[in-house]
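Colleagues,

For the teaching module next term, I've prepared a clean inverse folding example: a structure given as tokens, and then the sequence designed for it. I'd like students to try predicting residues themselves before seeing the answer, so please don't circulate the second half yet.
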């Protein structure tokens, strides 16, 4: 049995290590991540996690773990910004408001798939022009849903969260442990 992490995210690999789990392989799938017309954020996120799990080549006994993190402002999906201008628009829209961070997980073993979502509420303060421009100049926004990473410099912009910090980062550990165990992965084994 091998554990395959279907994600190129270094943060997900680091979070797995907190559970004492080191993937045997890292095989990020290449799928279309565009939302469908009128698709809601939670359904979108769950669909992507499932499609990623199905797209990873694995043996019948291998366990594939995939995830997708989406920032939702109401019914609007704020994905990974294409450029600094879009990142600025996202951060400005999020400023002074609560939004939702959804991380959907999928674990596949053979023909079975287990899924779960972690939903967290996050409040971002309104950013001054200085804060916004300095954050954009850092390039930390690149490749991040909603244009920010709570575990980085943007943590200074987040006065309040309700939910899972690790879910906001991109891999909710409680839910991940539950799904891996359901698929038969031996967590907490003694050496």
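(Answer key — instructors only)
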């Amino acid at each position: 049995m091998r554990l395959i992490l279907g994600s190129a995210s270094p943060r997900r690999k680091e979070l797995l290590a907190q559970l004492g789990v080191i993937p045997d392989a890292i095989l990020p799938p290449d799928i279309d991540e565009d939302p469908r017309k009128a698709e809601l954020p939670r359904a979108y996120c769950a669909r992507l996690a499932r499609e990623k799990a199905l797209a990873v080549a694995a043996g019948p006994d291998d366990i594939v773990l995939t995830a997708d993190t989406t920032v939702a402002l109401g019914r609007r999906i704020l994905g990974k910004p294409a450029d600094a201008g879009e990142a600025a628009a996202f951060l400005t829209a999020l400023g002074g408001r609560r939004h939702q961070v959804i991380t959907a997980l999928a674990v596949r073993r053979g023909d079975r798939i287990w899924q779960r979502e972690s939903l967290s509420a996050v409040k971002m303060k309104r950013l001054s022009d200085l804060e916004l421009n300095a954050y954009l100049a850092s390039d930390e926004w690149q490749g991040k849903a909603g244009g920010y990473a709570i575990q980085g410099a943007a943590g200074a912009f987040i006065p309040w969260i309700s939910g899972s910090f690790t879910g906001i980062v991109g891999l909710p550990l409680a839910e991940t442990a539950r799904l891996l165990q359901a698929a038969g992965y031996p967590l907490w084994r003694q050496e």
